[in-house]
Amino acid sequence: MKKTILFAALLAGVLTAPAQKQVLSVGNTSALTVKAGTVFSLDSLVLTPGADLTLSSNTIRESATAVGVPPAPGIDRQYNFSSPITFTGTIRLYYQPSELNGATESTLEYTDSAAGGTWVPEVTSTVNTSLHYVQYMASAKSFVASTASGPVIALPITLVSFTGNWNEANPVLSWVANQTGGTVTFNIESSVDGVSWNTIGTQNSLDNTGLDNYQFGDPNPPAQNMYYRIVLVLPSGQPSYSNIVHLQKRGNDNVILFTRNNSVSVRFTGTTPGGIRLINVAGQVLRIDMTGRQEYDLYGLNAGIYFLQYELNGQWAVREFAID
């Protein structure tokens, strides 16, 4: 795999975003079944299943955060499930015209993401500009998050993942780009509130084909609670925005990793994590364990680079490790 001078940990999935609110929580000792044909409203996300839908051990949260789908961010509204669901039926997502985030309403498409994957607009979805919603007819569709965005365009380079970590003195941002030839400029932006943004650095992409890894450290964060995003600037000058990463300074997480015989053992000597995810370099989530324990043992791993994502006190962090 090609690498820039610096390489850091990858954090796939959704990170803590501003203005989150919980719209539904179903525990592991009970289940909620929505009968086929029933209109089931989760805030402004409306599901009408074509077959019975059962939810358990799942929490759905709404946040006013745009996701990075070229050529512009999505709307300022997204819904995130703590566990993926597989759905057949009608998905409808309502929005306010004030949430378009610069997008043209008539071009909006329903957009979702599988666990650990990228955001993908559905070209067969429809938009109602009078009642302000996008709608998609799903068939055995697996997803973990939903929003709306403009139509996707082909780029010479796209972001597979953008994340960060603040376990040391300064925030460190990391991203993986999938390149098909040609170059772009990465503008790194920061914000103390997730609304007003400042450019704090610039990097040029490599002129490669395939996956490349990049890293940037913020030497002078003005606060201990920061937001970051990447702006890809194409040769035409057109911008494309990444997801927003929310980082909060904290001390040592006291995480110990032991690798041996195609496995990794994880020990938390401090705060008990809310859960963990195991991610490969392609951004795929291989394991999810939200049981909240001090020790985890993950077996059956092939040789390669992996990333352990873990939640402590409502914040997500990541550690990189290798299986030889």
What does this structure look like?
The strands form 7 sheets. Strands 1, 3, 4, 6, 9, 10, 11, 12 and 13 form a 9-stranded antiparallel β-sheet that branches. Strands 16, 17, 19, 20 and 21 form a 5-stranded antiparallel β-sheet that branches. The chain has a 4-stranded antiparallel β-sheet with strand order 25-24-27-28, with no helix packed on it. The protein has strands at 21-26, 32-34, 40-42, 45-49, 53-55, 58-63, 68-69, 72-73, 78-94, 109-113, 119-121, 126-128, 133-149, 157-165, 172-180, 185-191, 198-204, 209-217, 225-233, 239-241, 245-248, 255-260, 263-268, 275-280, 285-289, 295-298, 304-312, 315-323. The chain is mainly beta and 324 residues long. The model is unreliable at 1-18 (pLDDT under 50).
List the helices and strands and how they pair.
Elements: E1 21-26, E2 32-34, E3 40-42, E4 45-49, E5 53-55, E6 58-63, E7 68-69, E8 72-73, E9 78-94, E10 109-113, E11 119-121, E12 126-128, E13 133-149, E14 157-165, E15 172-180, E16 185-191, E17 198-204, E18 209-217, E19 225-233, E20 239-241, E21 245-248, E22 255-260, E23 263-268, E24 275-280, E25 285-289, E26 295-298, E27 304-312, E28 315-323
Antiparallel strand pairs: 1-6, 2-5, 3-4, 4-9, 6-9, 7-8, 9-13, 10-11, 10-13, 12-13, 14-15, 15-18, 16-17, 16-19, 19-20, 19-21, 22-23, 23-26, 24-25, 24-27, 27-28
In summary, what is this structure?
The chain has 324 residues and is mainly β. The chain contains no helices and 28 strands.
Characteristic terms for this protein:
mainly beta, Immunoglobulin-like, five-stranded antiparallel sheet, disordered N terminus, 324 residues, single chain, 28 strands
